[in-house]
C-alpha cells in the first residue's frame, strides 16, 4: 500500500517525521467477476473502447470517463475525515499519438468542473497533482480520457497522497458458521489481488460450524498465498458477535504490534478487493481513530445500493434507517450519484473497519450472539468520540435483505438486544416503550404469526430477566438459540412448505390501499375485534410476500403467504385459542415491563463493562 520512497520530513522535539507515499485508490475499468456491470467502474462516452480490469484500450477519437461508483475519488469524505489535502494521480499511457487526461470534479449540486489537464504524447507516465480542498459538504473527482488522434492504452492508474501518519497493521476478521463454500470463496477473493493480499498483515478466519472451511480447495489455495499470516480458529458457535469479536480479540492481544486496524467482513459477501485497499488507506490517515465502513450493494441486483449510510431511532428500536433525507436507498448507482456527503451513525458488519484504539477505549462487542452487535458497538464508539464513516465508493455485494424472511429465530435476538442497546446507550421510557412493544406483538397476532408473537415476547422477557437470565448472554447466546428454535417448532406457520402445498386454483389476494399512519392503531383494534368475533373473510387465499402486510393478511381466516426467499410458502390459519392465550400473556408481560424495565436497564448498564472484557470473551471462547 505504501510506495518504497521514504524520506525524513523534519524533526519536532527531537523526533523525525517520516513522509511516505500512500496509495489511497486505484482506478480499475471493470469488475472482479463477469456478473459485475463494468459501468460501475468506467463509462464509454464516445467511440470504440475495450475495457479490462486493469487496462483501457481506446480507438482514436474515443472518450471514456470514470464518473462512476467505483471510478470516483470521493473527495468530500476524504476532506471531512482525513488529513489528506492533495493527491498525485499517475496514469501509464501507450500511444502513437496524443492522449488527454483530465481530472474532473463535482460539487454538492452535481455541477462539473475541470481541476487539471495533462496532454500526453506517446508512451510514458502522465502525472497530475490535484488539491482536496473544496469538497466539505459534497462532491467527488474522477478521470476523463480522450484518445485525440491515435489509439491509446491506459493502465496502472493510481491516486496517492504523501503522509506522515505512522504505518498501521492491517488485519481482516471473517467469521463463519456452516457456510464453508461462501467463506472459502471470500478468503480466496482476498488472495486473488496480489496488492491487496500483500497489504493484509493478518487474516483471522473463525470457524464456528461443523462443515469446516479448511476442507475446501479454495481455502487451501488462499492459505498457500497468505502463509502464516492466515490464522484459522475453531470455537463454539457464538454467532456473529462471537466470531467477529474473536478477530478483534486476537488482533489486539497484549504484546501485538500496533497500531492495528481490524476489518470485519461477513463470510458470504462477494468482495471487491479494491474496497479493502480503500478502507485501510482511509483509516490510515483519519485525523482521529474512527470506524470506517463499506456500503452494501445487492448480490442479486449488483448495480443497486442498499443505502448510503444508516442511523437508529432507539426509542422505536429501529436500526437501518436512512442517515439523511438525501441518502440513496434501493437505487442503481449506475444511474445515480451520491454527491452530498452522508454521515453515518454506525455501519453494519458486512464490511466495517474497527481501529484497535476502539478496543482499548471501549472494550470488545457485547456477546449478543446475533443482531444489534454492530449497531451497539458503533453507537458506543460514537459516544466515546470515535464516529463512523460509511465510505462512498467502497462496497461489497451482500445477499439482498428483501429475500430474507423476518419470521425467524433472529427476532428473539433482535428484540432482546435492541432493548438492551436502547437501555445502555440512551435509556428507556417504560410506558412509551411498552406501547410500542405491545403494538408489534399484536400486529403479529392479527397476521396469524403466533410463533413470531411468542418469539418477540420471549425477547422482551429475556431483557427483563437481565444479562444473566436463562435467555441472557452469559453463555454467548447458545442456550437461548436452542430454546427459541425448540419453542418455534410448536408453531406450524413458522415452517416453510414447498410450493406444491398451495391448493390448486387458489385465489391470489393483493393488498389494496394503505392505512394512514395516524389510523393504524384504530385499524389494529378493529382487526383484533373482527378476529375475536370470527367475522373474517372465509376461504383459503394466497398472498404474495410483498402484499403480506398485517392489515391485509388479517382480513382472512386462512392464508398461504409466500416466503421472502421465494422458495416456499407459510400456511397461516386463525387459531382463536392460541390467539387468546398469547394476548393474555402479552397483557401480563406489558404490565411487568412497566414495573421492571427501569431495574433491568440498570442491570444491563452495570454489566456491560464486564461483558465486553477480554476475560469474559476468553471464557466464552473456551480459552
Polypeptide structure, described:
With 623 residues, the protein is α+β, with helices and mostly antiparallel strands. It has three domains: 24-163, Galactose-binding domain-like (Jelly Rolls, Sandwich), CATH 2.60.120.260; 169-403, Spore Coat Polysaccharide Biosynthesis Protein SpsA, Chain A (Alpha-Beta Complex); 410-579, no CATH class. 32% of the residues lie in helices and 28% in strands. Strands 1, 2, 4, 5, 7, 10 and 12 form a seven-stranded antiparallel beta sheet that branches. A hairpin with a 2-residue loop joins strand 1 and strand 2 (15-27). Residues 435-622 form the Galactofuranosyltransferase-2 C-terminal domain. Residues 49-161 form the Galactofuranosyltransferase GlfT2 N-terminal domain. This is Glycosyl transferase. It comes from Dietzia psychralcaliphila.
Radius of gyration: 27 Å
Give the helix tally.
Answer: 16
Oligomeric state, counting identical vs distinct chains: single chain
CATH architecture of the largest domain: Alpha-Beta Complex
Q: What value does the average pLDDT take?
A: 95
- First and last CA, distance: 34 Å
CATH fold topology of the largest domain: Spore Coat Polysaccharide Biosynthesis Protein SpsA, Chain A
- Binned, the helix content reads 25-40%
| Uncertain stretches of 5 or more adjacent residues | 3-14
Domain unit count: 3
Beta strand %: 25-35%
SSE-based structural type:
alpha+beta
CATH class of the largest domain: Alpha Beta
Q: Which geometry do the CA atoms define?
A: globular
Give me the count of strands: 26
Largest sheet: 7 strands, antiparallel
Domain Galactofuranosyltransferase-2 C-terminal: 435-622
Family: Belongs to the glycosyltransferase 2 family.
Domain Galactofuranosyltransferase GlfT2 N-terminal: 49-161
Keywords: Glycosyltransferase, Transferase
Amino acid at each position: 500500500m505504501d510506495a518504497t520512497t521514504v524520506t525524513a520530513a523534519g524533526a519536532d522535539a527531537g523526533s523525525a517525521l517520516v513522509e511516505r507515499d500512500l496509495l489511497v485508490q486505484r482506478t480499475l475499468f471493470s469488475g472482479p467477476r463477469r456478473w459485475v456491470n463494468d459501468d460501475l467502474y468506467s463509462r464509454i462516452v464516445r467511440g470504440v473502447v475495450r475495457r479490462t480490469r486493469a487496462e483501457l484500450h481506446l480507438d482514436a477519437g474515443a472518450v471514456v470517463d470514470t464518473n462512476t461508483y467505483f471510478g470516483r475519488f470521493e473527495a468530500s469524505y476524504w476532506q471531512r475525515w482525513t488529513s489528506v489535502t492533495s493527491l498525485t494521480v499517475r496514469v501509464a499511457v501507450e500511444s502513437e499519438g496524443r492522449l488527454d487526461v483530465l481530472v474532473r470534479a463535482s460539487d454538492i449540486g452535481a455541477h462539473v468542473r475541470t481541476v487539471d489537464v495533462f496532454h500526453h504524447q506517446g508512451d510514458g507516465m502522465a502525472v497530475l497533482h490535484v488539491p482536496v480542498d473544496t469538497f466539505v459538504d459534497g462532491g467527488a473527482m474522477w478521470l476523463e480520457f480522450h484518445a485525440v488522434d491515435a489509439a491509446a492504452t491506459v493502465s496502472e492508474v493510481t491516486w496517492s497522497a504523501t503522509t506522515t501518519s505512522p504505518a498501521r497493521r492491517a488485519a481482516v476478521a471473517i467469521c463463519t458458521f456452516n457456510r464453508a463454500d461462501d467463506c472459502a470463496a471470500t478468503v480466496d477473493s482476498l488472495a486473488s489481488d496480489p496488492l491487496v493480499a500483500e497489504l493484509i498483515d493478518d487474516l483471522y478466519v473463525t470457524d464456528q460450524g461443523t462443515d469446516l472451511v479448511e476442507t475446501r480447495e479454495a481455502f487451501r489455495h488462499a492459505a498457500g498465498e497468505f502463509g502464516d499470516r492466515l490464522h484459522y480458529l475453531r470455537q463454539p458457535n457464538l454467532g456473529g458477535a462471537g466470531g467477529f469479536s474473536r478477530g478483534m480479540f486476537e488482533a489486539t492481544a497484549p504484546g501485538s504490534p500496533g497500531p492495528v486496524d481490524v476489518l470485519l467482513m461477513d463470510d458470504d459477501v462477494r468482495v471487491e478487493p479494491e474496497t479493502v485497499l480503500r478502507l485501510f488507506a482511509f483509516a490510515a490517515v483519519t485525523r482521529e481513530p474512527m470506524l470506517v465502513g463499506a456500503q452494501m450493494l445487492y448480490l442479486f441486483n449488483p448495480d443497486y445500493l442498499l443505502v448510503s449510510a444508516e442511523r437508529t431511532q432507539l426509542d422505536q428500536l429501529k436500526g437501518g434507517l436512512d442517515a439523511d433525507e438525501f441518502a440513496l436507498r434501493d437505487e442503481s448507482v449506475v444511474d445515480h450519484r451520491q454527491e452530498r456527503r452522508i454521515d453515518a451513525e454506525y455501519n453494519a458488519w458486512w464490511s466495517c473497519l474497527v481501529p484497535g484504539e476502539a478496543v482499548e477505549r471501549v472494550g470488545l462487542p457485547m456477546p449478543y450472539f446475533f443482531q444489534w452487535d454492530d449497531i451497539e458497538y458503533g453507537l458506543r464508539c460514537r459516544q466515546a468520540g470515535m464516529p463512523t464513516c460509511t465510505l462512498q465508493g467502497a462496497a461489497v455485494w451482500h445477499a439482498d435483505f428483501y429475500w430474507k424472511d423476518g419470521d425467524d429465530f433472529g427476532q428473539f435476538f433482535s428484540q432482546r438486544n435492541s432493548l438492551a442497546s436502547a437501555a445502555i446507550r440512551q435509556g428507556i421510557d417504560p410506558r412509551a416503550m411498552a406501547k410500542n412493544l405491545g403494538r408489534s406483538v399484536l400486529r403479529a397476532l392479527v397476521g396469524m404469526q403466533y410463533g413470531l408473537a411468542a418469539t418477540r415476547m420471549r425477547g422482551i422477557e429475556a431483557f427483563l430477566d437481565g444479562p444473566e437470565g436463562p435467555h441472557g448472554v452469559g453463555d454467548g447466546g447458545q442456550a437461548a438459540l436452542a430454546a427459541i428454535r425448540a419453542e418455534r417448532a410448536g408453531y406450524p406457520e413458522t415452517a416453510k412448505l414447498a410450493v406444491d402445498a398451495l391448493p390448486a386454483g387458489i385465489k391470489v389476494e393483493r393488498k389494496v390501499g394503505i392505512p394512514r399512519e395516524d389510523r393504524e392503531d384504530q385499524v389494529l383494534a378493529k382487526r383484533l375485534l373482527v378476529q375475536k368475533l370470527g367475522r373474517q373473510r372465509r376461504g383459503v387465499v394466497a398472498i404474495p410476500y410483498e402484499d403480506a402486510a398485517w392489515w391485509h393478511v388479517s382480513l382472512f381466516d386462512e392464508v398461504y403467504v409466500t416466503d421472502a426467499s421465494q422458495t416456499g410458502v407459510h400456511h397461516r390459519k386463525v387459531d382463536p385459542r392460541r390467539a387468546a392465550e398469547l394476548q393474555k400473556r402479552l397483557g401480563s408481560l406489558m404490565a411487568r415491563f412497566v414495573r421492571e424495565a427501569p431495574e433491568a436497564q440498570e442491570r444491563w448498564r452495570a454489566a456491560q463493562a464486564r461483558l465486553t472484557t477480554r476475560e469474559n470473551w476468553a471464557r466464552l471462547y473456551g480459552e
